[in-house]
Automatic annotation (TrEMBL):
PROSITE patterns: NA_SOLUT_SYMP_3. GO terms for biological process: sodium ion transport. Its main location: membrane. This is Sodium-coupled monocarboxylate transporter 2. Residues 597-617 are annotated as: Disordered. Residues 604-617 have a biased composition (Basic and acidic residues). The chain crosses the membrane at residues 30-49, 70-90, 96-123, 144-163, 175-194, 201-221, 254-273, 294-319, 339-364, 397-416, 422-447, 454-471, 545-566. InterPro entries: Na/Glc_symporter_sf (IPR038377), Na/solute_symporter (IPR001734), Sodium:Solute_Symporter_SSF (IPR051163). It is found in: Cell membrane. CDD domains: SLC5sbd_NIS-SMVT. It comes from Drosophila madeirensis (Fruit fly). Keywords: Cell membrane, Ion transport, Membrane, Sodium, Sodium transport, Transmembrane, Transmembrane helix, Transport. Belongs to the sodium:solute symporter (SSF) (TC 2.A.21) family. GO terms for cellular component: plasma membrane.
């Protein structure tokens, strides 16, 4: 039996190697990829050495507040994509259906929230660092708690941003993955360090063009190879991939409701309350420019992300009845996209190079924006208070921080390669604190009576509660009480559709090794799956899509009642500009000084009496 298993495993490796060989880079592919990296490095050199700009901190982090609207909008779109997303979102649609698109459609609600509630507050208070607002509204401890969560998230995310596309590149070139990770991370650090926010924005524009071209080409060619849009929709519908779920059970993996609400919280947090994006928004000359930029970014985001989600549906329609995952040619859904590209584009010169450039462009965009904002947060929150600040010294230190973080990303690749289910792991871990961060910002803008003590304890309460829920949920996963089995596909159509590589795999009996085994007799009979549950309700069974929403709700659930226990000091004067325009209009409470100036007729006699009293005193 052991010998048989070894022989079959050897066959798997042989067929997989033969399949990968078809996707090896040609000279044209290397040229395409090299041009993309060279363009990014060239932009950094230009803004670092040749651009006629002052060497100031504001210039480095905010582009002198003179950034153009369109490039910033495109940069905002690019930064929300990563190589991980470009590989995993189509995989999500392929395995669990098109409901993931609801998280993207939430951007329709997010843009008005940013334009009319959050961004006006930053411009009113001349905020360059979104965490600076928390110190103005509450206190320094609140700011420090939130910046710590930002830094922790960056330490988690940045190595992943680079490692996953490096893995894809390694598979099509055979070059050692850590050499690739080192080379590309170094290029990103180079142009980010030299050019600052201007280099980040303009490289994002170049990279966005590559991403858009790749996504559109994949969608068009995939639809064509499947036999047209009608065939795509028919196959996807028969396979259950277009069954939209409007169920209200929070244990369902993804539904309309969890997609919309979790998407709203996620995009509000990532675009409007994450320093990597806020830094670009406030680099625009005025609020009017920011408003226009956010609208353009929202439209661009919806376009490219809807295409990306639909590519998963196209992949399923193409492989309907002949699943390369069941055939053993693809080890897991996250690796299906390169296989699909090879299948439909492998014969086109330069297409593998464009696709890998697309994945790298998405990752470089996320990495460069995060590096630039990370350096700013570390300097202003943790270094500046302890040194004598000058612009030249600040810029030098921030460049050193970027270099150090780049080195960490390279070393972090050795840890990331051991992770399983990277996407769900990241989504779950960030769910611990993201809801609390969004919640405390909204608390400051919407609840005037909330004090600093309430805000700090609210963050702690939310984070501790979410940590408890998530840890117990992981125990349920390990115990088999939660099991996210994918929607079914099959292998019965391979011969009819003439998929020779997959047929070869089947004929070599690879599927006997790779077919999912039947549940054992000891497996729990009552389980929560992606599409239903026969267990009694438990908060630990809720979908990870709800984590961010629940975290934000917990902040308000704590803060609203506690604001009556620990109210704000009556002697403390709050600046009305710290609240959202909606709340300021509801309160109709101008600055106390203005209020006295607007009451001359009513208080003229009393003023004279008051003057007399003061003179007697």
């Amino acid at each position: 039996m052991a010998a048989s298993t070894s022989e079959l495993a050897s066959t798997v490796a042989t067929v997989a190697a033969a399949t990968a060989e078809n996707l090896r880079f040609s000279v044209t592919d290397y040229i395409v990829f090299t041009l993309m990296l060279s363009a990014s490095a060239g932009i950094g050199v230009y803004f670092g050495f040749f651009s006629k700009a002052k060497n100031t901190t504001e210039e480095y982090l905010q582009g002198g507040k003179k950034m153009p609207t369109w490039p910033v909008a495109i940069s905002l779109v690019s930064s929300q994509l990563s190589g991980v997303a470009m590989m995993s979102i189509p995989a999500e649609s392929y395995t669990f259906g098109f409901n993931i698109v609801f998280t993207m459609m939430a951007m329709i609600l997010t843009v008005p929230v940013l334009i009319y509630i959050i961004v006006p507050v930053f411009y009113k208070n001349n905020v360059s660092n979104c965490y600076q607002y928390l110190e103005m509204r509450f206190n320094k401890l609140t700011r420090q708690l939130v910046t710590i969560t930002f830094i922790m998230n960056q330490f988690l995310m940045l190595p992943v941003y680079m490692f996953v596309p490096s893995l894809a590149f390694s598979q099509v070139t055979g070059i050692n993955i850590h050499l690739i990770n080192t080379a590309v991370s170094s290029v990103c650090v180079f142009y980010t360090m030299l050019g600052g926010i201007k280099a980040v924005v303009w490289t994002d524009v170049v990279q966005a063009g590559v991403m858009l071209l790749s996504v559109v080409l994949v969608a068009i060619l995939g639809t064509s190879h499947t036999g047209g849009l009608s065939n795509v929709l028919e196959n996807a519908s028969e396979g259950g991939r277009l069954d939209f779920n409007f169920g209200i059970d929070p244990r369902l993996r993804v539904t309309f409701w969890s997609g919309i609400f979790s998407g709203l919280l996620m995009w509000t947090g990532k675009v409007g309350l994450d320093q990597s994006c806020v830094q670009r928004i406030v680099s625009l000359p005025s609020y009017a420019h920011a408003k226009k930029s956010l609208i353009i970014a929202g439209i661009g985001f919806l376009f490219i992300m809807t295409f990306t989600c639909f590519i998963g549906i196209i992949m399923f329609a193409y492989y309907y009845g002949c699943d390369p995952i069941q055939a053993g040619l693809v080890s897991k859904p996250d690796k299906l996209m390169p296989f699909f590209i090879q299948d439909i584009m492998g014969h086109l010169i330069g297409m593998p190079g464009i696709f890998i450039s697309c994945v790298f462009s998405a990752s470089l965009s996320s990495l460069s924006a995060s590096l630039n904002s990370f350096a700013g947060v570390v300097y202003f929150d943790y270094i500046k208070p302890h040194i004598r600040h000058t612009d030249a010294r600040a810029n030098g230190i921030m460049k050193l921080v970027i270099i150090a973080m780049g080195a960490y990303c390279i070393l972090g690749g050795y840890m990331v390669q051991n992770f399983n289910s990277i996407i769900q792991t990241i989504w779950t871990i960030t769910g611990i604190s993201t809801g609390a961060v969004v919640g405390v910002f909204l608390l400051g803008m919407f609840v005037p009576r909330c004090s600093a003590k309430v805000a700090v304890t609210g963050i702690v309460f939310s984070v501790v509660a979410m940590l408890w829920i998530i840890i117990n949920a992981q125990f349920n996963f390990k115990a088999g009480l939660i099991r996210y089995d994918v929607l079914p596909n099959g292998l019965d159509q391979c011969e009819a559709r003439d998929f020779q590589v997959i047929l070869s795999s089947i004929n070599n009996n690879i599927t006997r090794v790779l077919t999912t085994p039947a549940p054992s007799a000891d497996a729990p009979q009552q389980v929560t799956t992606a599409f239903g549950s026969n267990r009694d309700f438990s908060i630990y069974d809720i979908s990870f899509y709800w984590y961010k929403v629940l975290g934000a709700i917990l902040v308000f659930a704590w803060a609203v009642p506690m604001s009556y226990v620990w109210p704000t000091d009556k002697q403390e004067k709050q600046n009305p500009k710290l609240y959202s325009p909606f709340v300021r209009n509801m309160l109709n409470a101008p600055d106390p000084v203005v209020e006295m100036e607007e009451m001359p007729l009513k208080s003229s006699d009393s003023k004279a009496k008051e003057n007399g009293i003061h003179q007697d005193a």
